[in-house]
């Protein structure tokens, strides 16, 4: 971003109207920007069709006449939990939210939260709160929702709406930290005469950057969110936060061991140092100001004129508390996928040792029954009908998808570089 554009943005932001009069923000019903849809494709989810500014969004949870084509969330909480843990385990809360910087696009910049994530997390928070209350001695990370168990009749939340409010606030507050860091970077650009935010963003905040420490530092800022804490049932905020992020922290336990004992304030200051290093400056003397002053700006006084928050939807929603987007349209794929195998796959399978064959068998079973819950790769940088997935740390499986029949063809599995043979330009 040009230095003059950074300074113009800061002037508009200080005046309380950061969007240009002729260029934004996005209006209700507008298509999401392609960078957001690419984010969803990378995660392996269907792309959303339009945005809704937060001040126009409603949860729509009132009861309606049951429809046989609709899937009620309470019937599939275990599927929602598996989908959530798979996405968060791979990418942290980056998987279920997006922040488009104004350095990238001044018109569409803002915080983007898919409706399906609010709805899924809201139901999960309600289910987890009930289990945490019923099993107070069970560590939050060990709580799992059972499809066959009868949930306690009384939820610790005053209503399901309160659980949805907490879900929405958690996801927005996570990305609010990203916005504050970009705002700080723009002040640093004004101060130093060099804009290095793009360097920081490419190294730390791209979905494919795999920057575990940054994701954890931003996640831990939720520990000190008063706005989120007051929406949770008494005494349950911290356990719910631990359960919500358990898949990410468990999957990265070794990498995060040096950070887990740090306070949220210390972790935030560390992230400020990471940002400042992109500008090649030392923030030791002013780190306290840089880390603590800007994040004190209130979100409720910034939305929607300084920054917009968008809820994204696939299509007009008529589900009112179910998990589908529309009667007859399921957000989750509950039916098994048909599987076929190529000769190349069969030859590789026969050559594999017994341990690898069992790993492949387990993965194929998951592809058949849990296709949409798996961490697929290559959707944004390969052929439209193909994707790949890790079998082990060094082996990958490439598949082809028939959009009409939903059949999954197992093309081959092998070395880490195998996807290149099938048209993936990076692996």
* Beta-strand fraction estimate: 5-15%
| Gap from first CA to last CA | 29 Å
Give the CA-based shape.
Answer: globular
Overall pLDDT score? 85
Order of helices and strands: HHEHEEHHHHHHHHHHEEHHEEE
How many β strands by DSSP? 8
State the secondary-structure class: alpha/beta
User: What is the count of DSSP helices, taking H or I runs of 4+ residues?
Assistant: 15
The tally of domains stands at 2
Question: Radius of gyration, rounded?
Answer: 22 Å
Characterize the main sheet: 4 strands, mixed
Helix content: 40-55%
Unreliable stretches covering 5 or more consecutive residues:
285-296, 316-333
Which strands sit side by side, in order, in the main sheet?
1-4-3-2
Question: What is the compact description of this entry?
Answer:
With 427 residues, the chain is α/β, with parallel strands linked by helices. It has two domains: 3-313, no CATH class; 339-422, YaeB-like fold.
Structure, explained:
Helices cover 41% and strands 9% of the residues. It has 15 helices and 8 strands. The protein has helices at 3-14, 34-43, 77-91, 115-134, 160-192, 197-204, 212-219, 226-229, 237-244, 246-251, 253-256, 264-278, 287-292, 343-351, 354-370; strands at 50-53, 98-100, 110-114, 308-313, 339-341, 386-390, 396-401, 408-414. The strands form 2 sheets. The protein has a 4-stranded mixed β-sheet with strand order 1-4-3-2, sandwiched between helices. Helix 1 crosses helix 5. Residues 285-296 and 316-333 have low confidence and may be disordered.
């Amino acid at each position: 971003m040009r230095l003059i554009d950074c300074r113009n943005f800061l002037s508009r932001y200080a005046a309380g109207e950061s969007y240009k009069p002729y260029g934004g923000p996005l209006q209700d019903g507008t298509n999401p920007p392609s960078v957001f849809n690419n984010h969803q494709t990378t995660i392996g989810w269907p792309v959303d069709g339009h945005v809704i500014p937060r001040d126009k969004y409603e949860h729509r949870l009132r009861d309606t006449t049951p429809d046989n084509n609709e899937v009620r969330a309470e019937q599939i909480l275990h599927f929602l939990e598996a989908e959530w843990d798979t996405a968060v385990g791979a990418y942290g809360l980056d998987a279920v939210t997006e922040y488009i910087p104004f350095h990238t696009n001044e018109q569409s910049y803002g915080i983007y939260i898919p409706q399906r994530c609010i709805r899924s997390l809201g139901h999960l928070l309600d289910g987890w709160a009930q289990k945490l209350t019923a099993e107070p001695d069970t560590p939050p990370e060990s709580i799992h929702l059972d499809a066959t168990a009868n949930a306690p009749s009384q939820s610790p939340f005053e209503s399901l709406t309160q659980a949805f409010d907490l879900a929405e606030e958690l996801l927005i507050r996570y990305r609010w930290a990203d916005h504050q860091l970009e705002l700080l970077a723009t002040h640093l650009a004004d101060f130093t005469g060099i804009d290095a935010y793009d360097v920081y963003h490419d190294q730390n905040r791209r979905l494919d950057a795999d920057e575990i420490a940054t994701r954890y530092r931003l996640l831990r800022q939720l520990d000190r969110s008063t706005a989120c804490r007051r929406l949770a049932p008494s005494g349950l905020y911290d356990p719910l936060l631990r359960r919500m992020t358990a898949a990410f922290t468990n999957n990265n336990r070794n990498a995060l061991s040096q950070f887990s004992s740090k306070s949220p304030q210390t972790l935030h200051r560390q992230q400020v140092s990471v940002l400042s290093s992109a500008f090649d400056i030392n923030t030791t003397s002013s780190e306290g100001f840089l880390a603590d002053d800007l994040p004190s700006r209130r979100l409720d006084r910034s939305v929607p004129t300084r920054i917009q928050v968008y809820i994204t939807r696939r299509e007009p929603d008529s589900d009112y508390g179910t998990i589908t987007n529309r009667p007859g349209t399921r957000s989750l794929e509950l039916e098994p996928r048909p599987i076929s195998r190529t000769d190349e796959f069969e030859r590789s399978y026969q050559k594999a040792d017994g341990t690898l064959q069992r790993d492949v068998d387990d993965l194929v079973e998951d592809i058949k029954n849990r296709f949409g819950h798996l961490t697929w790769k290559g959707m944004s940088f390969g052929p439209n009908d193909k994707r790949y997935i890790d079998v082990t740390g060094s082996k990958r499986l490439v598949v082809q998808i028939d959009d009409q029949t939903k059949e999954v063809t197992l093309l081959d599995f092998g070395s880490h570089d195998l996807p290149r043979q099938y048209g993936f330009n990076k692996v």
